[in-house]
Design a protein that fits this description.
Oligomer: single chain
Number of strands: 35
Largest sheet: 6 strands, antiparallel
Structural class: alpha+beta
Helix content: 40-55%
Length: about 1000
């Protein structure tokens, strides 16, 4: 009886000790978690605030994306990060930025593809923690084992943004595990990134819309002027005379492309020193006075050829009268001048010959066909000077172009066979020296005797190759510009002085649906004519925009109301006399609609600005009521702001606004327990390193107590990387310091308790179990003697049963201790053989029939901690045998095994007594037994749960009384290099 009381006392003391250990472990974990949580959340809070402040000062999108990548690593303490932007429009290339991972042209496309493949499996606007198996199908990202993922759709950018924070397999031991706390803050960070992206895009759109309005107004004025002179060269310069734009006619005439003349003054490359000096001076004086001017000047093409240019230069002023441009209308009149010269040469043969003009002269004896050429003609044919004095008749015939030879011979013969005394013709020749084809205009005069026989022929030849080419170009140009006028996006109507329509292009009729342009036509009295049309109901309304420029609205016959910008200009002849009007019509309905939208956008912008101002006031109020002490100083160390908290707690700052911190240092020795000079040194350190600098100080409060203050010193830079402010904030960390000191003390106490627990486990495993094994040996010897009566045998059997239970309890305690303190030992093993061995060891614990079966869906091998899986299944299968139903004859335990690439499932099914429903929720508690008749210690299932937790697995039990129990164990696959 006394021995029973000793056992109960021992069990009671052990339970009390176990309870104390559990309580201390719980307290230890809470303290550690609290400390880690406070430290990490404080750091991440500061870094997140720094990110928000710095992100507002990064206007460039590429720099902003790179800054996000850097901030992910800094805030969440991970190894690598990716920021991937995939635009909805496939023509817009995606953007990828990484920090901590080497990106190049060879791997960036593959990484983008792998990120898209991973993110497709997860929802938007939610954080996810991804494990290693998510990277199994990747190539470039296969080295990573853990990942935070967040993706959202950015409406303003019309894109999907994916954020990733990653830790590699190789460096996983050096980084803390990604847990729920980081997942939550990662969501906050990603949502802040979303807001920043949206705000930046909205701001850019507003700026673009404002720019479009300004550009449209200027372009309308340019179009109205250019369209009236589309057949001539047009040059638009800025107010300094530097070229901004030229039309195709200028390019063809001068030989200079738009790219070659942008930013240059026309006089720098079109004119030559010493040529037309008077005209150049007139031109310079008019440009200087910003006055219109018309004159004719000699210009030179890119190839060096000269041409006469008729200029009309008009200065352009904006609505405020500011000079903004010059528009130059240029006409090449070289052909006209040359044509006039040729007419004079033809009409006066003697004057042309004596002036040694560039006209070839020849004289031919009509009797023997002997021909004499002058030097000009020899040069035109490219003949050898040695030929001078020879008979040129045969040479002339060989030089005629083969396609023109028959015609020229026929026209020449008319002087011999008809009464004609002269002929005038054009034909091509092939020059002797370079085989160049030239076109000559020739005049031949015949002298005849009384019988009408030709006695002499005199002729002249003029090279009109350039003139012909110019005429062809002129014809082509006229056709081109006629086609341009017909197809340009402007309606055009030409009238004479009487108002009769001479021409209207196709675009006008397509634009207005009018057959008769007179319904909306304006001429020399625009306002009077428009007022008449308004009263007649031909137009809805009109508005004067500029001189001869009007905006009018009218309804087409299809019911559509359109807005037109109408501009009229007089048509002048060469004598500057007005001979009619040209009116152009531009559909500005879309522009008007855009203006309305922009007005709405401006209202929205103003509303946004008001909200921003409200937010600014709100945050200023927050700063004044913030528990942190905040001050702002300028780059010159002038104090520009101090919040209420700082002024209340540190009176030295009360009169500091507007004063230099350097001057304050001369009159005040300390702020708290540090000198102002130390604070200034830390400020200089933050500025030199261009990063946040911290300073910890100990303050003595008025009541004599000490407090700890952590000061953060942050230099703030503008978009131009210029220092604008230095922000100084102070946080009271006294409580955190107290907690840290308490944690250190608790850790020391827990180390002592753990040592005591280790000693106790050692005692249990050696000092207690050894006597039990001796008792078991003695009982076995007693049973072998056979000299026991029935009653003695019964009591000895009870003693043996108690010893076995106590030994089982000790073994379970040791099993629990080993599971809690030893690391994983991963290996591959045959689960079927393990289960069969366990059952073979248990089958002899009962004399009744008991069936055991094992099935697997594929392989019977698994990779995990063999000893822990063995202990786990030994308990589960042992319970199936131990708690069998003696009322049935077909008791069984069946094990089902299945596995995939990431995890294994083991299900143990029996048809034993089952577990009451009220006990299912408690069966995994330490020392809990479902009924008083239970023969177990209450530790078995508790140890099973601890083993499963150690393996990062899961265990579930389903049971029904008198029908049986099903235990489902899920264990993740563990690679040997992961343990």
């Amino acid at each position: 009886m006394h021995s029973v009381l000793d056992y109960d006392d021992l069990l009671k003391k052990y339970n009390e000790l176990q309870l104390r250990v559990t309580q201390f472990s719980h307290v230890e974990q809470q303290l550690i978690n609290t400390n880690d949580s406070l430290d990490h959340e404080l750091v991440m809070y500061k870094r997140l605030n720094n990110f928000n402040a710095e992100a507002l000062n990064i206007p460039n999108e590429i720099e902003f994306i790179e800054f996000i990548s850097e901030s992910i690593i800094d805030i969440f303490e991970v190894e690598s990060s990716f920021v991937f932007i995939k635009f909805n429009n496939p023509e817009n290339p995606s953007k990828l930025s990484s920090e901590g991972f080497y990106l190049n042209e060879s791997n960036s496309d593959q990484i983008k593809s792998e990120i898209i493949s991973i993110s497709n499996n997860y929802a938007f606007n939610k954080s996810f923690i991804l494990n290693e198996d998510i990277f199994d199908n990747c190539n470039e990202l296969s080295s990573f084992s853990e990942c935070l993922l967040f993706q959202f759709k950015e409406i303003e950018m019309e894109a999907t943004v994916i954020l990733l924070a990653l830790i590699s397999k190789a460096k996983r031991p050096t980084y803390s595990k990604l847990e729920l706390r980081k997942k939550t803050i990662f969501s906050v960070f990603a949502q802040q990134v979303n807001i920043l992206f949206s705000n930046k895009k909205k701001s850019e759109k507003i700026q673009e819309q404002i720019a479009k309005i300004s550009k449209s107004e200027i372009e309308l004025k340019r179009l109205s002027l250019i369209a009236t002179r589309t057949k001539n060269s047009v040059v638009i310069t800025d107010k300094e005379g530097k070229i901004e734009w030229v039309n195709d006619s200028f390019v063809k005439t001068s030989g200079y492309s738009l790219e070659e003349v942008i930013g240059r003054r026309p006089k720098d490359f079109l004119q030559r020193p010493g040529k037309h000096t008077e005209q150049i001076n007139q031109l310079s004086e008019a440009l200087l006075k910003k006055e219109p001017i018309e004159l004719t000047i000699l210009n030179y093409t890119k190839s060096g050829d000269s041409y006469y240019n008729q200029l009309e230069i008009i200065p352009i002023f904006d609505e405020q009268g500011n000079h903004i441009n010059f528009i130059s209308i240029q006409k090449d009149i070289s052909a006209e001048i040359k044509f006039e010269q040729e007419i004079l040469r033809i009409n006066s043969r003697f004057e042309l010959i004596t002036s040694k003009s560039n006209i070839g002269i020849w004289d031919m004896d009509g009797i023997n066909n002997h021909v004499v050429w002058n030097e000009v003609l020899v040069e035109k044919y490219g003949a050898d000077p040695a030929l001078l004095g020879m008979d040129f008749y045969e040479f002339w015939k060989k030089s005629i172009h083969p396609d023109d030879y028959e015609r020229v011979q026929y026209e020449s013969s008319l002087l011999y066979i008809t009464d004609k005394l002269s002929i005038e013709n054009e034909y091509r020749i092939v020059r002797y020296d370079n085989q160049e084809i030239r076109v000559l205009k020739c005049f031949t005069l015949a002298e005849k005797d009384e019988q009408g026989k030709v006695t002499r022929l005199i002729g002249s030849s003029v090279d009109i190759t350039e003139e012909k080419e110019a005429n062809l170009k002129l014809i082509a140009s006229e056709e081109k510009y006629r086609g341009l006028i017909e197809n340009m996006n402007l309606g055009l109507v030409e009238t004479n002085l009487a108002g009769d329509v001479i021409f209207s292009n196709t675009q006008f009729h397509e634009l207005t649906y009018l057959k008769d342009p007179s319904n909306i036509l304006i001429g020399k009295r625009p306002e009077i004519e428009l007022e008449q049309k308004l009263k007649a109901g031909l137009i809805s309304n009109y508005n004067k925009i500029d001189e001869s420029v009007y905006e009018l609205n009218f309804q087409r016959y299809d019911g559509v109301s359109i807005d037109l910008l109408v501009s009229t200009a007089p048509v002048l002849d060469q004598q500057k006399n007005k001979k009619g009007y040209i009116t152009i019509y531009l559909d500005i309905s879309k522009v008007k609609a855009l203006q309305k939208k922009l007005e709405i956008a401006l209202d929205e912008r103003n509303e946004y600005i008001n909200k921003v101002n409200s937010i600014r006031l709100f945050y200023e109020s927050i700063l004044d009521h913030s528990p942190a002490k905040i001050a702002v100083i300028s780059p010159e160390f002038i104090v520009t702001y101090a919040n209420n908290r700082l002024i209340e707690k540190e009176p030295i700052w009360q009169n500091a606004l507007g004063k230099s911190l350097l001057n304050i240092a001369l009159t005040t020795s300390k702020i708290g327990s540090i000198t102002i000079n130390v604070l200034i040194e830390k400020i200089n350190e933050a500025i030199n390193n261009r990063q946040l600098t911290q300073l910890e100080e100990i303050r003595t409060e008025a009541d004599g107590s000490e407090s700890y203050i952590l000061r953060n010193i942050l230099p703030f830079y503008s978009q131009n990387e210029e220092l604008e402010h230095i922000i100084i904030s102070g946080i009271n960390i006294t409580e955190i310091k107290t907690i840290q000191n308490d944690i250190i003390k608790k850790n020391e106490e827990l180390k002592k308790i753990n040592l005591e627990l280790d000693n106790f486990v050692y005692s249990v495993s050696h000092d207690l179990r050894s006597p039990l094994l001796s008792i078991k040996g003695i009982l076995a010897q007693v049973f072998r003697t056979g000299d026991l009566n029935e009653k003695a045998t019964k009591y000895l059997k009870l003693a043996e049963s108690s010893v076995n239970r106590l030994d089982s309890t000790i073994q379970e305690i040791l099993e629990y201790s080993r599971n809690a303190r030893l690391g994983l030992n991963v290996s591959a093993f045959n689960l079927e053989e393990m289960c069969q061995t366990i059952f073979d060891d248990l089958r002899f614990s009962t004399n009744e029939e008991f069936e055991f079966t094992f099935t697997a869906n594929d392989s019977v091998f698994m990779q995990s901690d063999k000893s822990r899986v063995n202990a786990l299944l030994k308990n589960i299968i042992g319970n199936a045998v131990k708690y069998r139903n003696p009322e049935i004859t077909n008791s069984y335990a069946h094990v089902e095994f299945s596995g995939n690439e990431s995890a294994y499932e083991i299900r143990v099914i029996d048809n034993g007594h089952g577990i009451p429903e009220k006990s299912l929720s408690r069966i995994f508690e330490m020392f809990y037994r479902a009924s008083s008749s239970s023969v177990g210690t209450g530790l078995g299932l508790y140890i099973c749960r601890e083993i499963v937790n150690k393996l990062d697995g899961n265990i579930q039990v389903e049971s029904e009384v008198e029908k049986g129990t099903s235990v489902l164990i899920t264990i993740p696959k563990i690679e040997q290099d992961e343990q």
